[in-house]
Amino acid sequence: VFNSPMFVKPCVVDVAIKLLRPTNWVFLDGREHVDYRKGLNGLFTRQALEAYLPGQEEVYDKYFAKFVEISKNGDPKTGVPFMVTFRELMCAVSCRTFVGHYMSDAAVKKIADDYWMITAALELVNFPIIIPFTKTWYGKKAADMVLKEFSKCAAKCKARMAAGGDVTCIMDAWVKNMQDSKKYNDKIAKGVPVDPEEKPNPLVREFSDFEVSQTVFTFLFASQDATSSACTWLFQIMADRPEILDRVRAENLAARNNDPNVRFSMDLLENLPYTRAVVKETLRYRPPVIMVPYVVKKPFPVTPTYTAPKGSMIIPSVWPALHDAEAYPDPDSFDPERWITGTAEQQSKNWLVFGTGPHYCLGQTYAQLNLIGMIGKASLGLDWAHRETGTSEDIEVFACLFPKVNPHPPPSSLPFCPFFFFLTWSTKNRKGLG
Fold first, then answer.
1. Is the backbone peptide bond immediately before 403 cis, with ω within 30 degrees of 0?
2. Are residues 268 and 262 in contact, defined by beta-carbon separation less than 8 angstroms?
3. Residue 409: count of CB within 10 angstroms of its CB
4. Which residue from 320, 432, 355, 410 is spatially nearest to 87, judged by alpha carbons?
């Protein structure tokens, strides 16, 4: 299904078009979609990803210190619910990566809190129209707020980059590419000789503030729930398997020559094989997104005996591929070693965490490096413990997979949040944080 663009295209619930807007690039298909993606590929190169690292680490410094303060104010016997805080952390990291310091901390907090309503509005079973005070209505209001904030960021970014600002976030890189492309096109139009090496790659058109906002919103749409899921599972799994946490900690300290204050770099993050294995095994063991709906554009021969009719929906699941015993022996066990001494790295056809085909996730390298940096830094600056509930490693689904806990009433400020996660934190005998 993923590799059959002639027959299918990704689809979402009807209300998604109202939230993301009909003109959003994610609803493009065929050549239009391919061409638009080409203009975004440069935002995720190794050089580009390196430019975003300082902003990401700045967020982790702030939130890890906040984690300690939260724990100090909690009950050490029962632990503290951290699921909502993890979600805020990942929203803050995403916003800093996407729009840098153009957005205030208060706006980031508002988006993190309200994004639950966007997720709830996009559930498969929901009102197809927006009726006041329903999930879709609250979701539309939240989406409008996010788009407005990102539009304001785009305007600030264009002014700063026109004045010669450095690239510190994805929006900077994209706007710089637009402005460089315009300068090049203006010279060509005037007949000014231009060195071929001056031609931007890719050459892109100018996008309005709202168009930029829509695209950045899709990055948040793709990352917020998925990274919140991965973050939660990573912290829980490592707390419940302290030997893995110890090994991650040792590897990260050694990679920094025993100085825990060494800052992120691509060279550092790319040379943490065990930490990388833990992240990849977490994404395999508990993949954030397990189903991706597609709509059939024309009769699609799925098997020799069945053809899906035009207009029907096909929803492939990545779970069976990621828990295939032939590809991943003992698939229901959490085993990072399979990525080091085993054959897991060779199972490219089964590694569907980020999709495959023309709609694969643009940010897959960024997402994995972000998680590697996060958990490695946490291991050096923090100790944490998880209060198991008996069902903690079971699965609860809210757009993505989360740990299941015993029922608790959701916090009043997050009416669609059914998940709690309990941790205690300390900075015992750690340097650099706290």
1. no
2. yes
3. 7
4. 410
- Where would I find the H helices in 241-323? 242-255, 266-269, 273-285, 319-322
Query: Which residues, at least 6 apart from 378, have a Cβ–Cβ distance to it below 8 Å?
Result: 60, 64, 235, 384
Residue in the structure block whose two tokens are 């982790």 = 60
**What would the pLDDT profile of 341-379 be if each residue is shown by its tens digit?**
999 999 999 999 998 888 788 999 999 999 999 999 999
Reduced 3-state DSSP string for 318-370: CHHHHCCCCCCCCCCCCCHHHHCCCCHHHCCCCCCCCCCHHHCCCCHHHHHHH
pLDDT digits (tens, 9 = 90+) for 200-215: 988 999 999 999 999 9
Lookup: tokens for 143? 């989406």
By C-alpha distance, which of 29, 6, 123, 403 is closest to 239? 403
The structure tokens 């054959």 sit at: 343
The low-confidence residues of the chain, meaning pLDDT below 50, are 408-421, 429, 431-434
Q: What percent of the chain has pLDDT over 70?
A: 92
Q: Is the pTM of this model over 0.85?
A: yes
- The b-or-e profile of 340-358 (16+ CB within 10 A means b, else e) is eeeebeebeebbbbbbbeb
The candidate with the shortest Cα–Cα distance to 276, out of 368, 343, 383, is: 368
Tokens 């006041």 belong to 132
Contact 278, 246 (CB under 8 A): no
Closest CA to 33 of 317, 363, 288, 362: 362
State the Cα–Cα distance between residues 103 and 217, nearest whole angstrom: 13
